[in-house]
Amino acid sequence: MDPLTRRKFLLASAGAGGAAAIAASGFGFAELLATARGNHEADADDGTDKLVLVTLYGGNDGLNTVIPYADPAYHSARPELAYAPEKVLHLDDSLGLNPVLTGLKRCWDSRQLAVVLGVGYPRPDRSHFRSMDIWQTGSPEAPVPTGWVGRWLDGTNANAEAAVSFEPALPPLLVGETRVGACVAVGGLQLPRGVDAELVAALGRLQDGESELQVRAAESYQDFLRVNELVEQAANSPAPPEVAELPPLPATATGGASSLAAQLALVSRCVEAGVPTRVYSVSLGGFDTHANERVGQEWLLKQLDEALSAFLDRMAKTKAGRRVTVAVYSEFGRRVRANASDGTDHGTAGPLLVMGPGIAGGFYGEQPSLTDLDDGDLKATTDFRDVFGTLLGSVLRADPAQYLNGYQPKLLPLVRGRV
């Protein structure tokens, strides 16, 4: 591709805010972006902790995930949806897990599952898009163009592979002003029809006399190919002896190749191969359970449970894997009272799960009242930024306030030996 044509392409695709977003606009957020170079050679255990963020899209019903089975108000508000106490996997004398979450119950019993209760944010918004935007940007007061992980990428001048999404599209979570996390499809590099790797490589060739903006854009295309190759090598590399005999992660399907199990399989291979990624983003959708919730949510929670428990079992086999922390969240919970379609409508607060070998298991925060409600919704008792701030400080070893727009979080003792 001649320099003039390439410049026109880059400039035409600009407009998403910053040089790092140029390639995103050119290819769409379904491809990988990054803006920094780095050395990819690493030992299987590079001595750094890693964070896996699991997003449950649609608004998971927290009351039927971590169930207040001993509360009469729970049973009276949703008689057709409520679980009988004897069916619930008891965690204490008042709260328990959904019956299908048997793997997470084993995690709880081994003190490696923390349940943070009543997590939400001030003045909740019941729009899927706005609420998820709030969670991923860490800014409930006003919209901002960057995610809290993206700002961490900015602040640390991170390499392209420092934060990777295995979701179909790059989440706002990983977008910074000068750095953007990498987005790698489960099946590898996915390019639009008529565009091949040679074209991407041509876009990445630097030309004399280009502006700083165009140079950064060209470097983004180079990183696009480089990180994709890195992940493919990790996926194809042999497993270490500790995990070589383990069965593959279950191939439960929530949209074919983009299932949560498939995404976590790539995470596991990257961790085992020593890929220097610090933050992974994966997801599972379908939690907008307005009708026939019991069947639909149980099906989704079972997939979540199987994928997570198999992943954690595998990670426990290696030193690098034992440095992994997993956090599971959704954009909001559901209404306390069931609707007329045996489902629930958009609500507010819900539980957030944090798990892994380094986690101090147990309950954190306060279970919201089911009778003292805000227009029929739960009142949040824990600000979500307190949880994310804790993960920034304890797992990523960063100053939480620097990446939460000045918010000073109340840090939780979720991680053993650290606050």
From TrEMBL:
Signal peptide: 1-30
SUPFAM superfamilies: Alkaline phosphatase-like
Family annotation (Pfam families): DUF1501
InterPro entries: Alkaline_phosphatase_core_sf, DUF1501, TAT_signal
Keyword terms: Signal
Coiled-coil regions, chain positions: none
Protein name: Uncharacterized conserved protein, DUF1501 family
Species of provenance: Micromonospora echinaurantiaca
